[in-house]
Design goal:
Elements (H helix, E strand, L loop, with lengths): L10 H30 L24 E2 L5 E7 L5 E8 L15 E4 L4 E2 L7 E4 L5 E4 L3 E6 L13 E2 L6 E5 L16 E4 L4 E4 L8 E6 L5 E8 L18 E7 L1
Length: about 250
């Protein structure tokens, strides 16, 4: 009687094949994830503002996010038109049980990080009384226009700013005019009696800053809007909920 022998299953070989297949699947999956992460990285259009890490990353059309740079507070939101809305921005050293920010200090902001900067790396600089004086870093020029923020383009005619861009008029009472003062252009009127700031943008006026990178020609438009927390002074004479800067900006 002829006996037929059935070959034993090649268990070891099949197991190795299965493990190799699984490894290939994992490798492909990781490659896809890595590629997706690279595609999601935010890179500024302005080549002079390349950076390694984005500190604050608001999603277009999404909710406001908190700043994450050291000693930087406030929020930023990005709309679907590419406009960044900064609110209650300030910088300082946090203290236990106390307000961490220091009025009349100096604050710095970077467009590339969408976050706070430092004295050695910034684009916008806020200093002076109530941090209302705006200047720019070396390598940038500052100009203004009375054209409404939404209508400003890269070809809008502007006037160069020499020095800081701060107060527009100083009054002895509540200001009634919110047009740009050609003799001392600025973004807010200041009532010297009750020490309250009245931003042009919040009172029917219009002034927009245009900041140009002198190396690349890339421009940004900025509208300073307020210095009070929540946009409202907390007292009639004088308020103390400042400076919590509010402004919006967009690359042109």
């Amino acid at each position: 009687m002829k006996t037929t022998t059935t070959p034993a299953p090649e268990t070891g070989r099949n197991l190795v094949k299965s493990m190799n297949s699984f490894a290939r699947v994992c490798a492909v999956a990781l490659a896809v994830i890595f590629t997706a992460c690279q595609e999601d990285e935010i890179a500024p259009t302005d080549p002079s503002l390349k950076h390694q890490t984005v500190a604050a990353s608001p999603i277009a059309g999404g909710s406001a996010v908190s700043f994450t740079s050291a000693s930087t507070f406030g929020t930023v939101r990005l709309d679907n038109a590419g406009v960044y809305y900064v609110e209650d921005f300030f910088q300082g050293t946090p203290g236990t049980g106390t307000d961490p920010h220091v009025p009349n200090a100096t604050y710095y902001y970077r467009f590339d990080l969408v976050d706070g900067g430092t004295s050695s790396n910034y684009v916008l600089r806020f200093s002076g009384t109530a941090n209302g004086d705006i200047t720019v870093a070396s390598g940038y020029t500052l100009a203004y226009t009375s054209t409404n923020f939404n209508s400003v383009t890269s070809s809008t005619t502007t006037t160069a700013v020499t020095g800081a861009f701060g107060y527009n008029n100083i009054t002895m009472g509540t200001p009634t005019s919110f047009t740009v003062n050609p003799l001392h252009p600025g973004w807010y009127n200041y009532n010297i009696v009750n020490h309250i700031v009245y931003p042009l943008a919040d009172n029917g006026g219009s002034v927009t800053l245009v900041i140009t990178n002198t190396s690349t020609g890339v421009k940004y438009k900025v509208e300073p809007q307020d210095i009070y927390q929540g946009g409202i002074p907390n007292s009639a004479t004088p308020p103390n909920n400042y400076p919590y800067l509010k402004f919006r900006y967009k690359q042109l």
